Amino acid sequence: MSEQDVRDGLAGALADEPPLSFDPDRLVARAQREIRRRRSLVGVGGATVVIAVAAVVAGTLLHPTATVATATHLTTPHSSPPTTTFTWPPAGVHKKSYTANQEGVLALGWSMHLAQTFDTVVPGATHIAIQAWGGEAGAQITDNQDYLDTFATFTLHGVPTAVAVQVQAPGRDTVTPAQLCAQSSTPSTCVSFPQADGGVVFLYDATQNALRLRTASAYRPDGTVVSVTGYNYDPTASSAPRVQPSVPVTDAQLTKFATDPVLAF
Question: What is the pTM assigned to this prediction?
Fold first, then answer.
C-alpha cells in the first residue's frame, strides 16, 4: 500500500457527514460527569493502547506532531472569581457530528502523540502507558460521541499514578466557567490563566478526605474544552492506592497538556 493510499483512506474516514438532528439528551451536564469521575477512589482498568505502525501513520497524517517544550511557568492569573470577563460558549460555534471511525482515528493519533511527548512535559516519568480512549462506558467509542476520555498512567519518583485526559469537540461543552469553578472543593481558589490565542485555562481542586485532584481545563476560542486531571494517588489501581502528600504533576504540566494543539477534534 502506497503512502497516497493511506492518505486517501484516512481522508475518507474523516470526511464530513450530513449533520444529525439535535439530540438534547447528549448534552449531559459536564459538571455532573466530572464529579462522578472524581469521586471514584479507584479507577476502572482499561486496555493499554498498542501503537502499531498503522497508528503512527494515522496520527502523523491527522495532526502534525507538535514540539512540546518542558512546562516551566504559567502566565499571571486573573483574580477570583475568574469568570467576569470570559463569555462561554463562544459566539458562532457550531457542533459537528462524528462517526465512531472518525473518533477512533483521532484517538490513535492522540495516543501516539502523548506517548511520544509525555516525558518531555513530565520529566522523570517512566512506565508511561496510554489507555484506550472511550466515554462513560469505558474504552468504548460510539457515533456522535463528540468527546473522548483516557488515562495516561506512569510512574514518577517511584510511585505509580495517572492523569485523566478529556477532549471535547467544539460546541459540546456548554458548562460555564462559573459552574466549572463551583465544582471545586474550594471554589475561591479556582484561578484563570489567559492564553495568547484568546482562550483561558482554569485550574481548580477537588478533595475527598486524603485524596486530592487538581484539574486544568482549557477553554479554547473554537469551543473546544480539554481537561486534564492529576491525582495524589493512582486512579487506575485495582487495589488500595498509595496516597501521596500532593499531586505529583505541577500546574504548569497540567496546563501544557490541556493546551496542546494536537488534542483537538
Answer: 0.72
| DSSP classification of residue 178 | H
> Could you tell me the residue ranges of all domains in the chain?
3-13+29-66+84-258
Residues 254, 74, 172: CA angle, nearest 5 degrees: 50
pLDDT in tens, 197-243: 889 999 999 888 899 999 999 999 999 999 999 999 999 998 888 99
Q: Which three cell numbers stand for residue 15?
A: 470526511
Closest CA to 51 of 8, 5, 110, 102: 110
Gap between the Cα atoms of 4 and 14, Å rounded: 15
Q: What is the DSSP string of 86-139?
A: --SSPTT-------HHHHHHHHHHHHHHHHHHHHHHSTT-EEEEEBPPBBTTBS
Edge-to-edge, what's the strand order for the sheet holding 191-194?
Answer: 126-130, 147-156, 159-168, 225-231, 211-219, 200-208, 191-194
Q: Measuring CA to CA, how many Å separate 32 from each of 104, 170, 175?
A: 25, 19, 10
